[in-house]
Amino acid sequence: MSVELRFGAVVIAKASLSVYDCVAVTELRPSAPCQACVSSRWGCNWCVWQQLCTHKASCDAGPMVVSQQSPLLSPAPPAGDVPTPFPPRSPQAPVTSVPDTLPVEPGVPSTATASAVPPGDRPSLLSPWGPGAGPGPVPASASTESPLHEEPPPPDPPNRPGTAVPAPTDSGPTATPEDLSASHPSPSDAAALPPAPADPGPEADPSAALLDQPPGTAPTTTFPGAAGSVKPAPDWLTREGGELPEADEWTGGDTPAFSTSTLLSGDGDSAEHEGPPAPLILLSSLDYQYDTPGLWELEEVNRGPSACPCVDSVQDSMLMPVHVEREVQLLGRNLGLLQDSPGDSECVMELEGREVVVEAWVECEPPPDTQCRVTCRRHQFSYEALQPELRVGLFLRRAGRLRVDSADGLHVVLYDCSVGHGDCSRCQTARPQYGCVWCKGERPRCVAQEACGETEAVAAQCPAPLIHSVEPLTGPVDGGTRVTIRGSNLGQHVQDVQNTVRVAGVPCAVDVLEYEVSSSFVCVTEASGGEVAGTVTVEVPGRGRGISEHDFAYQDPKVYSIFPTRGPRAGGTHLTLHGSKLLTGRLEDLRVVVGDQPCHLLLEQQADRLQCETSPRPMPATLPVAVWFGATERRLQHSQFEYTSDPNVTSAGPTKSFLSGGRKIWVRGQNLDVVQTPRIRVTVAPRALLPSQGLGRRRRVIPETPCSPGASCGGHHFEEPCHVNSSQLITCHTPALPGLPEDPWVRVEFILDNLVFDFAMLSPTPFSYEADPILQPLNPEDPTMPFRHKPGSVLSVEGENLDLAMSKEEVVAMIGDGPCVVKTLTRHHLYCEPPMEQPLPRHHALRETPDALPEFTVQMGNLRFSLGHVQYDGESPVAFPMAAQVGLGVGTSLLALGVIIIVFIYRRKSKQALRDYKKVQIQLENLESSVRDRCKKEFTDLMTEMTDLTSDLLGSGIPFLDYKVYAERVFFPGHQESPLHRDLGVPESRRPTVEQGLGQLSNLLNSKLFLTKFIHTLESQRTFSARDRAYVASLLTVALHGKLEYFTDILRTLLSDLVAQYVAKNPKLMLRRTETVVEKLLTNWMSICLYTFVRDSVGEPLYMLFRGIKHQVDKGPVDSVTGKAKYTLNDNRLLREDVEYRPLTLNALLAVGPGAGEAQGVPVKVLDCDTISQAKEKMLDQLYKGVPLAQRPDPRTLDVEWRSGVAGHLILSDEDVTSEVQGLWRRLNTLQHYKVPDGATVALVPCLTKHVLRENQDYVPGERTPMLEDVDEGGIRPWHLVKPSEEPEPPRPRRGSLRGGERERAKAIPEIYLTRLLSMKGTLQKFVDDLFQVILSTSRPVPLAIKYFFDLLDEQAQQHGISDQDTVHIWKTNSLPLRFWINIIKNPQFVFDVQTSDNMDAVLLVIAQTFMDACTLADHKLGRDSPINKLLYARDIPRYKRMVERYYADIRQTVPASDQEMNSILAELSRNYSGDLGARVALHELYKYINKYYDQIITALEEDGTAQKMQLGYRLQQIAAAVENKVTDL
């Protein structure tokens, strides 16, 4: 604590108060309290007899050990001169200032000067522990001062009591724990006033105090006024004569009541205190008792730790056996100081938490020798711990409570021979210093030799070995089993049993590393040569042989079979192995492996059956199964285990269940039949207990769940087993829950062996539990009474929550053993239709009474409601009067007569109707059989052709178009070639001027203001059509292709204007159609940026889909006239007729062009129903496979020649004189018409007649169908497979000619062929899925352009305050899928060098429409009148929708694309693909629009102030003058 002396607000003096307690110092070293006391920094002394540490200079009785820090230890006490604490300055002897020192007057002796004590004898005042003390730090300084009184002291008081006390010193950073725990001094307590040399001379080093400081000690505070200090010294310090201030100046006139343990010290840390240090003050009025009379006259002074009485060590050996009386001899020093002290001495042993006290005698050598011997009385020790040795602490105590100092760790060691030496052999191998022997007698044991009684004999030789156990008791006949043998007297060394162990008569080699003396060892069996059994024998030379009680059997295990024989590669299959003697050897040595993968054994194995769980494997494989018995292998013969592909779950539903559970969940996927034990697990936890999920930016987006799969998350698990129905279906029943916590979190998982599928990843709707339903009884007033039901009516049951988690198809209602068909289920009502007759009671037995009523029960999952009994109403007999009965009989007779007449009249019509009915029934049965056979045939064809299709697709490469052709076809669709390939069309004389003007126009387009004004002006003109807008956008794209960064900036600006325009109207309609220039610019921009992605990623699946469609369409007949095909996805292009055909393989030769004349032909697959033109196209595809389309010959310049033999050549054509003509119809010739056989040789030869091709006639595939001439003009109509009159749309019948049912059948019969659409869809399903997966996948990096543009749309929506995410979704769909992907899917010729047809375009249109439906948010409600194309993919579109939603969400969460990254990619695209796209022609075409709307553009530029400043109108006029030679205002 700090003490200040203030005068008003002026601080006169400041000191720190430190409180210490000498008694507490002894707690620092409980084993040596005396040494701790006299070694302390506070100058404490030790009273030997009282065992008391005190600050006093004398004891009440007995000797004292004085502290090594005490000034009383000086051999030359002061002769009467009192040291002056503050001597005056001496100009003759200047004192060099040292930190925290005060000068001492020369000539005045000091009690602690260097001259007072010889260097070899005096204790160091720089160490708090004195000479030889522990590792305490060296203090910065020490000082001695005289106590001050209220009056100035006389000049030389000879007999003045008092002495100087050293001040506490800083313990420094390395202070010992004893120092710190003794008084806890603060840093300010550490400074004191060290002595200065009395007469500094040449031999005195003024920096000695500094040199004695330990390294790293901070310099202490410099006194004010001393050398090196910048502070002035106090005035009292510089007074003449060195006069000290009055007591009032120190204390303010009052004497403070200091306690005897109070010490005032000055500041000691210069870093924290700025004031001068105060001198140490000890008041002589207090009883310090430092000046005991006669102390200086003692002949011998006990000082320092070495003078303390202490027990140093144990004489002789510290080992002591138990149960043997022994005395303990101790050696000590200075114990003579204890003589004549009251109380007896005793030895105390700390044994297992208790003290064992024995009497002690102390004998000391005569002085000056300080050595002493302590004898502890004989005593028999023992301990309970099961350990061979026990260390026991030992010390000397006096008077029953006063502990004498002892050396640290003084102890003896008790040992017990019986611990760990349970038999004779182990006893004889004990440590020799123990002296253990095997003592024979009634109770043989291992004891110390002194403990073996006279009546007992010491065993000289140990008995024969004894075998207690053998493990295992079986092993394979091949040997190698590690047998553990336990017993006693099994030798003292491993050599004793090295070659003497026999297992069933077969040698067993002992493992040297596993040998434990006398108690156990492990040996490895050798091969037995057959199945034998016998005892285990161990022989120790000279001691006899030990034989086991149980026999060991050599066995030959066998493995016969396994079940199941296949399982998923994820592992977890419980494999059962059947065999014999499968538990041979150690269970821990038993292993089952499948290939190289371990199969982990399960519990409760049997000798004829093992069960294990397979490990995961990276790839599917078929592997052998083996069982290892230690080092012996037994492999399963004639069977292997197959690792199949993992089961995969694709969907699950429904998504709700009642709390009582039991609702059936349909889990669909692939390879589900390899699962052994499917389960459904429901985890329920309060949402508040879930760990919080941090959201960080990441490239890959992983669906985050509040809890990792399989973790409990502080919730409860509920499980139910599932049932495997097929490879594609598993059914589970939801488990019942006891209840739901507040704000529950529910997770449903399907555990398929080692795989876990989260329901949340399989369904867009999270699974939820709903409150259980409640059903009211049929008779709410009296449920015990039966409910009377009138036959023909519907039962109505009221309730609550009935349809929250159940559909009507899942509800089972029963009346007795008869079903009550549920017709309607609402939230509060259930309506069911009972049987017409009253059913029997459920579980009806003969012993039941006949009038027992059935019970009405409703089963909803696990809930079963009993709603009362049901009684059907019947007609009860009523008594009629006789007259009424007679009248009723007459009336009945007349009625019967009338009925007979009516029946007779209509009899013949009834027979006719019956005949018609049977005829129609037979027709329907035949039709059903035909449809069934057709479906089987289509399915068989599908399966057989898939292999050929895949191999054919992998055989040829992908004919990608180069970027120039790709860009031209995308920018200018509908043109056979780019319109930019033409010439400028200007005279040569004006060409340089025109080209110069076009260059100026290119520069003018680099003005953003001009370009936007130009576009907006054109769009505002009524004559500027939608086709013109698209054309101008493509021209601008070509013109700005070399500056894509600028092009992107223009696109952003125009798009921002478009958003602002649509926000004011209906924002969801934006980008839906190409009505503006910016929309076509966006299409072109996407096409440029995604070209690399199309080539690298999407190209392969898209080409595979194209080839698959072509292969499948060509596999079936195609009508050359109507364009309808058997295999298609478009019902408008479906050939609804059963055409007979068979496939042919022709050997095609090429008679023209490269490779002509080769004898070896190319096999070509055709159909005999193909026309000659169709066959010709298929031959060209095969003969020119890999040749670009531009290099192929025109099919119209070639004829097909059928060659048979040497001279048999026949030209085949679609129409010739052999064509079949029926009235006005001519059938096109087919291969079947010419009867071309399978394997025939055909050749392509030049046409004999020239075909005149009109100029500028674009050849468009699929448009060669001849125009049908009007019959009235006398033309002949061609037909191929089906005449138009034979189309499935029958002519309109006359009124009444067909009944309603026949008209319905006539309309429905052609729909049978819609199964061909399903066949086509099934064939192409994999290719469609692969294409959509690549387009909508984020597993690989998404193209930066997509991320950049999507972020732009999000930014625009945010700027315009559009929070509806559906609107942003529509924008993204209209910009990427609609404007790019649909265009690419519908037109593969934009990407590949391929030729399409009308049939293929129709199929691609359906696939593109499906992709678009997947990207839209609207849910299409399907019904009987829905388009067939939408019904085909009705079940797939929801799955595709989830893919699109995940795709958009993943892109939204990826790291935003910066403008720098996008500009870098655009610059690279400009460099790589800015070839000759016809930019000059594009500029010329753009100028045509400028010329057309010249006045409007000039007006718009002149009305804009900025444009006028930039002189944009003037520049445009210059361009017009150069290009058109137009006269302007220039």
Find the count of extended strands (DSSP E, 2+ residues).
Answer: 65
Which overall shape is indicated by the principal axes computed on the Cα atoms? extended
Mean pLDDT: 77
How many strands, which pairing sense, and closed or not: the largest β-sheet? 10 strands, mixed
Tell me the number of helical segments per DSSP (H or I, 4 or more residues long). Answer: 29
Please state the structural category.
Answer: alpha+beta
- Bin the strand percentage: 15-25%
Low-pLDDT ranges: 74-231, 236-299, 693-706, 875-879, 1251-1273, 1286-1309
The helicity comes to: 25-40%
> N-to-C terminal Cα separation, in Å?
100 Å
Report on this model:
With 1530 residues, the protein is α+β, with helices and mostly antiparallel strands.
